[in-house]
Amino acid sequence: MAQRAFPRPTGFSRARFVRTRCVSRPFSTVLDVPIHPSAHHTPPPAPSSSPFHDALQANTPRNNWTREEISDIYHSPLIELTYASATVHRRFHNPAAIQMCTLMNIKTGGCSEDCSYCAQSSRYDTGLKATKMVDVESVLEAARVAKENGSSRFCMGAAWRDMRGRKTNLKNVKAMVEGVRALGMEACVTLGMIDAAQARELKDAGLTAYNHNLDTSREHYPSVISTRTYDERLATIKNVREAGINVCTGGILGLGEKSKDHVGLIHTVATMPSHPESFPVNALVPIKGTPLGESKAISFDAILRTIATARLVLPATIIRLAAGRHTMREEKQIMCFQAGANAVFTGEKMLTTACNGWEEDKEMFGKWGLRPMETKETIGGQQEIAETANFDTVAEVPSSVQASAPVI
Ligand code: SF4
Fold first, then answer.
1. Confidence of residue 380 (pLDDT cuts 50, 70, 90)
2. How far is the CA of 82 from the centre of ligand 1 (A)?
3. Is 188 one of the catalytic residues?
4. 320 is catalytic
5. Where are the alpha helices (DSSP H) in 271-326?
6. 3-state secondary structure of 219
7. pLDDT per residue over 327-345, tens digit each?
8. Which of 30, 172, 229, 247 has a CA-to-CA distance to 8 between 20 and 30 Å?
9. 118 in catalytic set
10. C-beta of residue 265 within 8 angstroms of C-beta of residue 217
């Protein structure tokens, strides 16, 4: 027989038991205690010298973080961590504005690399068919559709190891970048490794950002990919940064790593000469046929912790809730936005994985008081305003020009 949640005390008739429970419960909870204002718990402030406190007080980004400091922040009680990250988020960004980006695969599959999570590697049998590069006009048509649906950034990905010997491909990519920029959208590409000259060519074509993820920490990286090194990835990021293109680099959670690897990844980007403009946080979508195809999903608290820590340590950066978002319920996505994520991929597909659709996102945004970020509010948009008006830094752009732009 199933046990009653609140057993009837000995000597109580059924009627007396019911009556008693209606008037005063035979068990004690906090609700039985009169609520007094002083009874509300105010969390004690973190010690004034703690990394957590320093991050919470920050008015400008800093890039001299130690791994220990970031680890302290990452391992703070989650309820305090997300409260702090939400506070810093509001200081640097408009919390209602979420950048909507659409990512299109302009060259699918057939990649020679061995990234153990990727459907596009030619080393794994994932059932994906390699295709030729999409023509420029089809890409621009897709960008127009994305813009009509509220996306302000259009990202184009090609499954290449690098751009060596790809002169014609680079020419076509530049035409795509120019076309996307002419639509008034930000343009981002991810083409594998590029050298300094290729980065400059892309900058001249008007490229807003270049994505090249570090994926994970330096220590865990060799167990994920063997065909290029962490340092090669960092070299591409350096070429991009030095060409004056915004860097988009982040990670994938759920690659069999530990929390110290989340800390390690954040530490690497937080100590770059300047913080990346964009830090994508992906949750692995296991693809059958890849070495990580049977991986267990990463826990949500680890995703939230990573976002909140990144927000505190990279306060001005756009934090992009990327692959795996479609597996999250709406409430979880909102917790990520509260904790500091402020960009999403939206559209029909995200490279080879599913993506939340525009209609679904519009409904969610409407319900929660969110709205698509305008180009003038993004870091790329701010830089353009600064360049056009001849300001030396984004910070010098008057707030009247910035509209509801981030306070950087
Ligand atoms: S992640 Fe990129 S580089 Fe790695 S296998 Fe996939 S397409 Fe190639």
1. low
2. 32
3. yes
4. yes
5. 300-313
6. coil
7. 889 999 999 999 999 999 9
8. 30
9. yes
10. yes
Residues 230 and 218 sit within 8 Å (Cβ to Cβ):
yes
Looking at per-residue pLDDT, the higher value among 20 and 182 belongs to 182
Q: Sign of the C-alpha dihedral, residues 220, 335, 318, 55?
A: negative
Instruction: Name the packing angle between helices 300-313 and 330-339 (round to 10°).
Output: 20
Using DSSP's 3-state secondary structure scheme, residue 338 falls into helix
Active site residue 101: no
Please work out whether the CB of residue 120 comes within 6 Å of at least one atom of ligand 1. Answer: yes
Q: What residue spans of 255-391 are helical by DSSP H?
A: 259-270, 300-313, 330-339, 358-368, 379-388
User: Following DSSP, what letter does each residue of 94-154 receive, concatenated?
Assistant: -TTEEEEEEEEEEE-S-B----TT-TTBTTS--SPPP-PPPPHHHHHHHHHHHHHTT--EE
Distance 398 CA to ligand 1 centre (A): 42
Pairing status of strand 349-350 against strand 353-354: antiparallel
Instruction: Confirm or reject: Cβ of 192 under 6 Å from ligand 1.
Output: yes
Please state the domain extents for the chain: 77-401
User: In whole angstroms, what is the distance from residue 358 CA to residue 365 CA?
Assistant: 10
d(CA 57, CA 315): 11
User: Contact at 8 Å (CB) between 280 and 303?
Assistant: no
**Tokens encoding 10:** 């000995």
Q: Atom 7 in ligand 1: which residue has the minimum CA distance?
A: 159
By the 8 A CB rule, do 110 and 120 touch? yes
**Are 84 and 339 within 8 A, CB to CB?**
no
- DSSP character string of 145-179: HHHHTT--EEEEEE--SB-TT-HHHHHHHHHHHHH
Judge whether residue 382 has pLDDT over 80. no
The class of domain 77-401 in CATH terms is: alpha beta
Q: What is the pLDDT of residues 247-304, one digit of tens each?
A: 999 999 999 999 999 999 999 999 999 999 999 999 999 999 999 998 999 999 999 9
Distance from Cα 97 to the centre of ligand 1, integer Å: 31
To which residue do tokens 């299109």 refer? 104
Work out the average pLDDT over 134-153: 93
Task: Name which of 389, 368, 337, 297 is nearest 90 in CA terms.
Answer: 337
